[in-house]
Amino acid sequence: MSGLIPQRFVEDLLQRTDLAELIGSRITLKKAGGNYKARCPFHDEKTPSFNVRPDKGFYHCFGCGAHGDAISFVREFDGLGFTDAVEDLARRAGLEVPYDENAKQEMRQAKTLTDALDYATQFYRNALQGQQGEFARDYLQRRGLDKTIIDQYQIGFAPGTGTALYDSASRDIQGPLIETGTVSDRYGPPRDLFRNRVMFPIRNSRGRTIAFGGRTLGDDKAKYINSPESDVFHKSREIYGLYEARQALRQVDRLLVVEGYMDVIALAQSGIQFAVATLGTATNQDSLSALLRQARHIIFCFDGDAAGFRAADRALDNALELLADGMHLQFLMLPDGEDPDTLVRQEGPEAFRKRIDSATPLSRYLFNRQSEGLDLTLPEDRGELKARLEPLLRKMPRSTLRDAMWHEMLRLCHQNNWQDRRQWSGKGGEQRKREERIDVRLNKDTQLCLALLEAPDMASEIFEFSQTLRDLPNAKDLSELILEKKAKSRTQVMMHLATDSKAHDRFYGIFDGIEHIPSRASILADAQDNIRPMDKTKLAQRKLALMREGKIDLANLTEQERNEFKRQITLGDSEQN
After folding, report:
1. pLDDT of the residue at 562
2. Which of 68, 100, 499, 512 is most buried per CB count within 10 Å?
3. Distant-in-sequence, close-in-space partners of 551: CB < 8 Å, separation ≥ 6
4. Which of the listed ranges 50-54, 133-137, 461-465, 503-507 does the model predict with the highest average pLDDT?
């Protein structure tokens, strides 16, 4: 419907909106000259990289790349569609959106349907408190739900009689109930779709009911059923529990994606308010796109059985094409036979939060899964790993994360120590040493950058070394980044390269020309060989300086130092001439 709002009105609305005031009403802004800075509301960060330019009418985060105008901010922060975001800004400005007649008719129709569904929500809630709802109340109590959480999620009960909802509705409500599929007239007289079920309303970003999920209290073949799709409900785009999460939290930084309504509600009751559930297949790209529009940090939670791992593999496979720098996807695999509902009540909220905090990053999950059953000391298995990984990594859009994962694949597939390999050949099983492999020689700058990835603790040494030479720009900047970020491991360095937009732009292609990555031992040995000569030269130069000052005797110098001293004297004389 966005195309039905005149562009002139949209432009006027953006001109009237004070961007700093709008964003400042949701997050804390600090003045920085003519602009404003803050910690980004769209990704986790400790130092502010989110900038607001009221004079230009846009915001930009240098950490995750989030960028846009007032409409974009409202859409991203509040999880609204374009039309709803324009409506929200228009109300703030005291304006009425000038829809054309077709758009107004669409909106009236949608309101009619959501009015009918809101009526059904209230009917089910009242039924839960009535005499017929006694068994449903006992069921919810056995599941550990209290009145507060039942009210927060507006849980209800659909009576077992076939037309209870339809009979209670007025004529102007009955038609929309049929239109949404909440009541069906497909096989004869109108009949309620949900009967003898605990009811879970599915609400949109405005808190309006757009569909239902129902859990049987009897022996129905289908344990759970959902509303069919309608003009107001498209299951692949909707996320159960998102509205409640946004109501409970000032800012939704991450989402924990679980598989069921009761999992969402049980976690919320335990204080874990950022759990949600998708309504279609949780692992398809439409659902993943809907999740990534709401948060850039997604944690998928699956049962640790074979079916759970298959679902996690599908989620990963579909996520690869959507990944971009600044996105953070993780996988939390629960013990076999457990789900979030039972586990959080069994071990408590703090223990479950620790599980969430230690969820496996997508890159590690991918490498671990694809390495299962392989012995990477064998060339055949290293080749098999590369054959498994390469098609998956090629699905990813170009990014620092993709480059880092590609180099990790190459590292895993070339990790054998060639110097210690032996080959058995000749008659009688005579053992002879295999020819040593000739490593590809890399330039000094690239060698030191590889060393920084393998051993970030060398950053101080390499930074000092690179300051004395002009041909080590990448090593100098990368070591400076590692020192600034206080990165202690390869993983931490990779994360900074993947999530810091400045680092991404600076180091995007530093390893593009490498055909082969040497072994870790070779990389570190080459780095030390590069650095040691400079250490000796600096020592000699230090002694020479002391000698010039008369603090050290020429006889105490080594032959190399005496030669260096003579060379320095010769250079000095030639420069003076």
Report:
1. 62
2. 499
3. none
4. 133-137
Do residues 125 and 156 make contact, with C-beta atoms less than 8 angstroms apart? yes
* Total-model pTM: 0.62
Region 314-337 average pLDDT: 90
Tokens encoding 510:
């530093």
CA–CA distance from 181 to each of 186, 226, 227, 241, 301 (Å)?
A: 10, 10, 6, 21, 31
Name the pairing type of β-strands 328-333 and 297-302: parallel
DSSP readout, 340-372? HHHHHHHH-HHHHHHHHHTPEEHHHHHHHHHHT
- Residue 249 identity (one-letter amino acid): L
Residue 474 has pLDDT above 50, yes or no: yes
Per-residue pLDDT band for 422 (boundaries 50, 70, 90) equals: very low
Please name every residue paired with 333 in a beta bridge, in sequence order, or none if there are none: 302
Q: Can you tell me the distance from the alpha carbon of 86 to that of 11, in angstroms, rounded to the nearest whole number?
A: 11
DSSP string, 304-346: SSHHHHHHHHHHHHHHGGG--TT-EEEEEEPPTT--HHHHHHH
Q: Are residues 527 and 448 in contact, defined by beta-carbon separation less than 8 angstroms? A: yes
Region 205-220 average pLDDT = 90
Residue 406, both tokens: 């590609």
CA-nearest of 231, 217, 324, 251 to 77 is 251
pLDDT at position 202 = 95
Q: Other CB atoms closer than 10 Å to residue 18's CB: what's the count? A: 14
d(CA 373, CA 308): 19
Token readout for 250 is 């000032």
For 550, left (φ over 0), alpha (ψ -120 to 50), or beta? left
Dihedral, CA atoms, 508, 512, 518, 523, nearest 10 degrees?
A: -40
